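P.,

For your records, the input lines for the assembly:
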Amino acid sequence: MELWTIAPLAALASIVVASYLFVYVNKQDSGTTKMREIAGAIQEGANAFLKREFMYLAVFVAVVATVLAIFLPKNGPIMGVAYIFGSICSALAGYFGMTVALKANVRSAHAAKEGLNKAFPVAFRGGAVMGLSVVGFAMLGISVVYYLTGDPGIVLGFSFGASAMALFAKAGGGIYTKTADVGADLVGKVEMDIPEDDPRNPAVIADNVGDNVGDVAGMGADLFDSYVASIAAVMILAVGLAPGISSFDNPFVNLPLIFAGLGILASILGVAIVRVGKKGNPGKALNWGTYITCGIFIIMALFVTLYLRQEIETWAQSNLESSLYPFQIWGALVVGLVAGVVIGITTDYFTSIDRAPAIKTAEASKTGAAINIITGFSYGLISMFPPLLGIGIASAVAYGLAGVYGVGIAAVGMLSIVGMIVAGDAYGPIVDNAKGIAEQSGLGEEVIDIADRLDAAGNTAKAITKGFAIGAAGLTVLALLATFQEISGAAGFDLMKPLVLAGALIGIAMPPLFSALVMLGVGKNAFRMIEEIRRQFREIPGLKEGKEGVKPDYATCVDIATKGALKELILPSVLSIVVTLVVGFVGGIDALGGYLGGSIFSGLIFALLMSNAGGLWDNAKKYIEAGAFGGKGSEPHKAAVVGDTVGDPFKDTAGPSLNTMITVMSLVASVFAPLIVMYALL
Amino acid sequence: MELWTIAPLAALASIVVASYLFVYVNKQDSGTTKMREIAGAIQEGANAFLKREFMYLAVFVAVVATVLAIFLPKNGPIMGVAYIFGSICSALAGYFGMTVALKANVRSAHAAKEGLNKAFPVAFRGGAVMGLSVVGFAMLGISVVYYLTGDPGIVLGFSFGASAMALFAKAGGGIYTKTADVGADLVGKVEMDIPEDDPRNPAVIADNVGDNVGDVAGMGADLFDSYVASIAAVMILAVGLAPGISSFDNPFVNLPLIFAGLGILASILGVAIVRVGKKGNPGKALNWGTYITCGIFIIMALFVTLYLRQEIETWAQSNLESSLYPFQIWGALVVGLVAGVVIGITTDYFTSIDRAPAIKTAEASKTGAAINIITGFSYGLISMFPPLLGIGIASAVAYGLAGVYGVGIAAVGMLSIVGMIVAGDAYGPIVDNAKGIAEQSGLGEEVIDIADRLDAAGNTAKAITKGFAIGAAGLTVLALLATFQEISGAAGFDLMKPLVLAGALIGIAMPPLFSALVMLGVGKNAFRMIEEIRRQFREIPGLKEGKEGVKPDYATCVDIATKGALKELILPSVLSIVVTLVVGFVGGIDALGGYLGGSIFSGLIFALLMSNAGGLWDNAKKYIEAGAFGGKGSEPHKAAVVGDTVGDPFKDTAGPSLNTMITVMSLVASVFAPLIVMYALL
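Structure tokens returned:
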């Protein structure tokens, strides 16, 4: 069954389409000199961040690769190389996607002069480059590793490399973006009383850069990570089904590749279909794009299942102990995908500006900031119920259909349409930037209004993507837990065993610790930023008054955000790796299994809570800004701004970094499992 | 081995000493007419709350008891009676303790005129009545049930009844106290600009009542609940060690009773020892009281272990399959107790006014309310690491020493000194009230200063107790999980089983849901209260100006808080029982085991986070009020007040109610386990 080569072919197609869209975006008009100037500064800042990030990453990756090469009892050097390769592929996808995003922002702002239907495709196709690059480079990388080694274990090494990049891009980018945002807002809006995105603010470029490094590159790397991890996990589980047989001869190893390949093709079609009319609704267009992509994927997967049915059944009967039927596998795939969409939709309910939670939180602002925060936080707590129920039911049903393998396949199903999801998500910061550029270069009310409508759609897309990303990470880490069990040979992780329980109690403490450290990092870094912004307003004459020709020193702000973000990232990252190894080498496989389980539980909880409460506070503020409860500048508005500021590091730094953190921890455990089995203390 | 009768004898001694202290407090001078008037109003309000609470409770208990009597396959009617008896015993302890607290407040305020060393014993002995009543009535109840039935399973029914009372007292009282507090503060301090505890404020009596119903009666009922549950759990685990043998002949069934009896005696001695000099430090006196109680208990337990050693070893050799040695059991007991103290101390670090977390949070207030909240929240997240590690290590060590039975014994060890712990905790609201009475009746600067110092010690004691209560609940519910496993006959709860996992994912969503509902309940109820306070200021002429003879209508505010609190409690309470039964009857024992495990994990997380972050925000505010960063009235102070207001429902409503909630859920599962085994769907 060489059908798995559909995966690299789809990956190549994806990269080709991405390149075509790159050219399309690039050839659009980039507007006035002023616009180009602003866009140029953002691009410069983003590149400065990426450059430094890659530098840190290179050191980190080199160290870890060396450790893998020396210490792993089997395939050490190859694992090291795969690890490096994984981080490079993810970095490439991020670099490619972000380069386009930085071109698409100014070009869609310019196109907005001619109407919504002209600006939308520029922005969306810019986002699509990121989406298609992620799945393209990910799948190409997996295929190369798999083709050369035939060993899913090495694919796990590749996945581990991708997770390193995700940690830097998502958590580091998250600290960066909020440092800049909080700094710019607190000094600019609050102290100096100048509007958002005003060019006089020294941190305005850093703020715009932040949207790109946090949301475009960060989210891309995060989903790259989950995508690869889910595929690697299910391949390893498939090997476990028929241990003696070559992977290439085992159809269950190849199936996730085939399904993922189909998902890429569906995403390409979905991207091609999305469009919006002159009076159209860009939010609806994005949602329909997602639904249609899902539909196409499910049907394609069904046909392939029909086609392969006989072959798989025959093979399974003669090679597997337990039964595993093709349609049940397809069912698990669909269950995962549907769960992902349901989680996205419930996230949307809890964060949408026109739904009860946001409106009630806005109303609570009437009695002050504290009640706003308590209300938003409470809805955030409630919001985790549907997705957790969804993940619980999906995993149980998938298991019922096709065992542990089914749980992995459900994760693959959920992640199959990642190309489309990331496209919609990256669209968000592009139009957010476009709005900023339109404001900074004074394009007039009408254009700003169009940019606003594009931006509102982006916010919804972003909220759905976050829910989706958390759900996908949840199923993926559950599959990784099964992989860890497979590799370590554990019989199970029984909570009634003392070491499993003790591990779980330590595990549940890790995601909160990680969140706290990155949020405190934002605080510390923002403090440095605030000092610098104040200094510039104090020392640069004519800056505050907006004197002709006087410009702030954008570069220093960008530099502070960059350096600080990467510095503050070190402690939480190292802790999440080191504590995992300590628990493993001291407590052994049982403790480590419990630890992973615990960290998955609390990781999911806090990721959902923080992302959703953050989004909710943001929209409660926007609801008031739209005129309710006194509107902009009123006391309730001030209260809602406090809630929004609390929510910022929740939703853009700590919350979404947790996906990455738990994936990293799971991968560390799986990669080092053979060593831990040999040398654990207890 | 009839040595277990030490338990009821110690319980009787405890009640006798409590009665003596009651008389002591009662015969103290209750001060001026004005003071008596205020204290009378508080007493009236508290009694009104209790009366209504008991009414609701009676209906609830009657319904559940009927359900137990009809549906349980074995011993239904007896279980129903034990259930009613448990709720009555807990209610009696609460009523007795609170009656004294309401006498001790005004009497210690009066005694403060003669100095700290006169006021302290009045307040502390008032608290001690609660502490000794809790352990006295709890142990007397257990002993009666055990003596009459000889069946630890029925003791579990008694425990279930106590948990019903805890739910009403802790969660209902928590909603009550914050409703009154938030309402009084928001209208009084913020809108009307009148000081705290000002007699013109219509909600001031309700606020004072709240301290008593939430902190005295609530905390007492909560620890009553954990105390009984831990003893019942370990008795059942002991039965499981030697199934065929009568409980009375099984020394392992009797050991927890003996140890708990010794703990009561140690607490009585500890209470007798605590005293403070004229210039003494009441906080230190309370802490030393706790340490000395621990020491006495450990030594007494050691002697009893030495005395029983031979008998237990001989019995164990001929009746048990696995070995279980007396000294190892003693070790597990000590491990639990030490873990409790360590958790208390780390809680103290994270919430104390003179430690880094509170100071840094206070400092963060310089950049506004949002940064104050993010910082405090972050430290709250970090603060859960030490106690979770502590519970993890304690349970693993206790298991290593004496198996699952050891985990239960560790919980008993931790809870052995509950008499002393509750005494210190109940002291807090008494002196808080004393301070309020001193201010309202104008006793002058010097007296208020002494009341302030007494109050500060109370706050520290409260923080430690909360950490302790959470730790104790944690170990208790782990023991209850083992009990559930024992009763249901499950082999274990393996996270890799799909139903266990799905159950766990639903379970982790429950405590956040419960927290959110009670916090939103506070919001709704506070809103009603605010409307009423505003109405009174508007409609009662001369009230705001403080005209001679004009008094607000305190009773209506008390009534609103009371009705609302009990109303808002219904949904979360019913949900936590019903969802548990649904998960059990649909998913079966595996799903229910996972569900309990998951709810324990997230229950611990949120209980620790909310209690600690709340305490931290409170003290950060107090740190600023003591003069730092601009002091009272400055911008940082206003920011810190927002943090404190957010923290109020965290630390006094949602956080501490979670102990009770997870205990209730565990008990529901254990009590209904036989039915679930018979009728589960999957």
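Two observations worth noting. The radius of gyration of chain A is 24 Å. Chain A has a mean pLDDT of 91.

Regards
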